[in-house]
Amino acid sequence: MAAFRTVDPQSLPRHFDPSEGEGRWHHAWQEAGLYHWDENRPREETFVVDTPPPTASGSLHIGHVFSYSHTDILVRYQRMRGRNIYYPLGWDDNGVPTERRVQNLFHVRCDPTLPHDPELALEPASAKVRKKPPLVISRKNFLDLCAEVTAEDEKAFLELFAKVGLSVDWRTEYATIDARCRTLAQRSFLDLHDKGHTYTVEAPFMWDVDFQMALSQADVEDKMRPGAYHDIEFAVDGSDRSFVISTTRPELLGACVGVTAHPDDERFQDLFGQTAITPLFHAPVPIFASDKADPEKGTGILMVCTFGDQTDVEWWREQGLALRQLLGKNGRLRQVTFGDDEFPSRDADRANAVYAEIAGKNVEQARKRIAELLEDPAHSATGNGPPLQSPPRPIEHAVKFYEKGDRPLEILPSRQWFVRLLDKKDALLQKGSEIAWHPPHMESRFRDWTENLSLDWCVSRQRYFGVPIPVWYPLDAHGEPDYDTAIVATPDQMPVDPMTDVPAGYTEAQRNQPGGFAGEADIFDTWFTSSMTPQIGSGWVLDPARHKKLFPADIRPQSHEIIRTWAFYTIAKAMLHEDSVPWHHVNISGWILDPDRKKMSKSLGNVVTPLPLLEEFSADAVRYWAANARLGVDTALDESVFKIGKKLITKLWNASKFVLSQEGQPGPITNELDRAFLRELRTHVEQATKDAEAFDLARTLQDTERFFWSRFTDTYLELAKTRARDEGDPAGRDSAVTTLRFALSVLLRMFAPVLPYVTEEIWSWIYGEERGEPFIHGAAWPTAAEFDQIEAPADSGSFDLAITALAAINKAKADAEVSMGREVEHLELAGAAETMVRIEPVLSDVLLASRCHGHAVTSDDGIDVGSFQVRDARFAPRPDKK
RNA sequence: GGGCGCGUAGCUCAGUUGGUUAGAGCACCUGCCUUACAAGCAGGAAGUCCCCCGUUCGAGUCGGGGCGCGCCCA
Length: 882
Prior knowledge:
The chain is an alpha/beta fold. Helix content is 38%, strand content 17%. The strands form 10 sheets. Strands 9, 10, 11, 12, 13, 14 and 15 form a 7-stranded mixed β-sheet that branches. Helix 4 (127-131) links the parallel strand 4 and strand 5 (135-137). The protein binds one RNA strand through helix 11, strand 27, helix 18, helix 20 and helix 24.
């Protein structure tokens, strides 16, 4: 048999050079099409990933690299298991973040009523331009700028992902704003509409006054903000009786449409059914009982406004109260007149005089002024003195904000499109339970969110950059739209923009004309499109054959804070469209916290960007760091882990250099030590594979690393290295070299998903050709079957025993403060009689490894079974330095 | 206020159905240039497993209560 081909260690670089190797291998893998999904292979062999499309605006932070690495490690493992991988990558460029960047970068605002200017060419705004008011441009011009900005960001993101070594099939690249995704989102709407899951209604809804758009429950978060209770006296109509309400929203006094207290509250029994008169505006409003009023809160009796909060909306509906909308969509108080049917008043002149002071003001300004006016006894409804009973009492309370907004949300009536979900909670929960969540407790986040959902999904947004809602409305003879007979675009029209495209049966000339039609100006919520990422990959209605092969996906990787949005909506869509789960598994990555365990955020200024880390420590080392974190566990950023990764890479490099430079021939593995070692390796392969199959790649890595370091380089390799060079024992040498090379090939493959570059580099020296597997990432993950030809050791504990004996001799050397390489002239190895019998088959390797030239063995049953004592060690003199 | 998670060596973290003396790496201390590797090797020191109560022959692990931290939601 031919001798092993070997490497010349002198000709190899001292270390792996990632700055050169990463780019080289990236290109080699691309050229070989290693990441390509093969559409001809059957579904059972396929592993489909539903990759998160990152928001392509701004910059990535280290948390992205962390979670995308987790996915890639899993994917590379599955690829080595022989699966046909579908691993796409897209960009979520819809929505507010992009619009904001464009507005800031070019200092522009969008006005959809303006005509398109094809000549418009803008540069990023200079400081001088920024001092002027923003340039107002058409919708199409605005969208062009959005596309321009996202394209640049996507390029930078893509380069970073390539550097990290993500093994995505780059042919699949998509953007949620591209024509295909727009079509799919609009087809989704059509399907939901046909199935009766959508509706449009004008209703009070959460509204951001800066963005001037409606929001869904998932977009909203509570923030603690200072506020103040204002105690204000109301009169009771036709009575001397009065009462004091407590409110944090005095500026809405003019929008008061009722007063309520708890039905069991003794203090107010006489008031229910009476009419109250508000101060300042002298408006008559009904007093009613409601068990939603909390007797403990404030004074126990409160005013109902249209609309101060969500409970006001409920009272308004249940009691059939009047609608007095004071606040405009821009967040300022509208011009209204008291004394008419909409805003009744017992003293219209005074009311209008007061209102004139606050009309046009924003909420904060109005609140301040109203508080001042309430101190004037002239405005009292009772004649008892100032309506404000005492100076406002400051409190800290939760206020609802749009997650990207700076001012509190208001509740305003507006027309919106909804997807009906509240009637499907049980079915959604059922779907959630059919999915395997990793770690399992993350399912409870989905469950909690779904159970507590209180609003249908508002899918319309008053924005520009996004997928248009594909509907038109017929206009009646007065030019008023009929929302109940919305015209939905047909599939052949999609992607459609109802603001420029025309519905069937109409002409452009009829746009916005009585008897004609009007296009829907709103776009979809970003999640409406990104909740379809599995269908975007599969093609869904656009490619049913492909869809069948790629849907449902196998795995959805994502982080935990968007379980309530991305995971939730994706599950909802798959259920509504096809009564299916969107994927079989969800992998939840934890978060990267800063070293003080604080969440990274721009406002705290503690965001860490990945590029410097990748350059300092290499992609492999960064991936090693990511791979060490278990799923779902938040991890503090600790650079020492990168260093450990770097050490591991160097160790792999050096050990491989040694192993692959040993000369010998493929031979039968005859030696007891070799067999015992390989038996351990086999056990490790089985366990590590079991963990990987359970998505616990972190454990696979940790155990493989431990095995590599403490069972291979520090021990087996040391024990076998002298024999591997022993020309006087060809059989023993071939057994050792064959074992070393086989073991290294197994370990390299087990590290390959985590450390793709250095393992590929090493693989290419010898193994690629020798094994006929040119790339390690196309090679087979090791299995127990590969060990079947290797005979079992006579004693499964003999490897362990050899290590123990070597350690005992090493300790003697350490105690004597001599080097591990010091020759030993003679020593006595003592152990229990049973131990000494068992050590015999591997003793020669132990003595060779410890450079022991003379020895005696002693049975001493006073020593614990399995351990050794080294006695009378005599070391050779230290050789002269050359 | 509710849900979920976390609390183990100075630091970052393992610790599987309860089972000898609780582990790793980093940092620290002592040696050692040894024919793959000083980005290394050998040896060493270091813990009230957050606290209390309980179940058990036995608790880091299970149950109850409390404290602290994080995220999500009211």
